Amino acid sequence: MLGPLRERDFALLWGGMFVSLLGDGIYLVALPFAVLDLSGSATTLSLVGLAWSIGMVGFLLAGGLLADRYDKRRQLLIADLVRLLAVGAVGVLSLSGALEIWQLIVLSFVFGAGEGLSGPALGSIIPELVPESILVQANSLAQSLRPVGLRLAGPALGGLAVALLDTGGALLVDAGTFAISIVCLLAMRARPPVHDEEHEPLLVQMREAAGFVRSQTWLWATLVMAALALLLFLGPTEVLLPYRLQQDLEATAGSFGLVLSVGGAGALVGTVAIGHFGIPRREVTFLYWVWGVATFALCGYALADHVWQMVACSFLFGILSGAGNPVWATLMQVRVPPALRGRVSSLDWLVSVGLTPVSFALTGPAAAAFGAGTVLLVAGALGGVAIIALLYVIPGLRAEDGGVARATEAAADAAGPAAPGGPQRPSSDPRSSVNVG
Description:
This protein is mainly α. It contains 15 helices and no strands.
């Protein structure tokens, strides 16, 4: 599983991502408590999340088009710089005592814009850095960073940083992690785009990507599923989980960091399991079931009376979501043509998160009307049932199972048999290439 780290540029990208995700984990803890310290309101938390999501959604299409036209490394540099400036400004304002809600909303929008530029470039650059034979391992390594940095170590550091440095100091630490990521990106080699389409109008390029998405049932159906899931999941999780911990359970930022950290540990378990055992043969069915069952974790957050119960729910959610992420990343990279990866990745992000502004906008008022626990309970139950039901309702979706295996077999056939005594041709079963233990 560690083989891709022998590739210099992938190792640099991986290292920069890890440090920056540590900072994002600090941000996840520090920012909600900064908002709650100023207002104590779930509705205000929703407004800040709404601004972030609008910024991200608004820049996703541009991010995908730029990723296919230009050097993805340069795009990642710009995205990191934008986020460094945004979170650094929040930290400075907080430490000076001048931070106000409107400033948080504006700077959250800017931070989200950086996310929108980063996502498509990051989702499409990995196949350019490693050979296809170790793409599954590379995706597992890349996906393992999110649970370790964003969900495990980062939130633990966030709780500690808030306790020692206050929220403003913690956010400045996050800004420093983006600076380290920028240094790693600068050390990577620049790469030209897969092919030059500058002569084609942007609208034509986007139509080409949209046409490909419409032609692939596994792709458009999963994007619809993700949009529905995030509508029901993201706002309640980002807003009501810290709200319930602080207001209902009288817990601290450290407890919130613990809940997120244990979820990250679970996600690491799920991600490493896929990296070791490989992609399941029925990968589409696998995705819908693990993500559907994971969404029921919201019901656990709603019913929990103690922090340890939230910790247990977070750990189970982490295992299931962590197992699904590298499967989806590999599906996207194996079954999407290289020249379309940036644009299709931006459409993936855009459709998946397109309803998240609505999720944030509805969560605060719904919690005020019905209670945070009720909203979490209903959202978790509806989301889990809907995700699994779509697998059996959409015609032809389960017939898409086995796409990674078919693509691997086609690549192996195109490569031809290995020369005597030379490197052996990979097995047609993609799982065989990752059984290294």
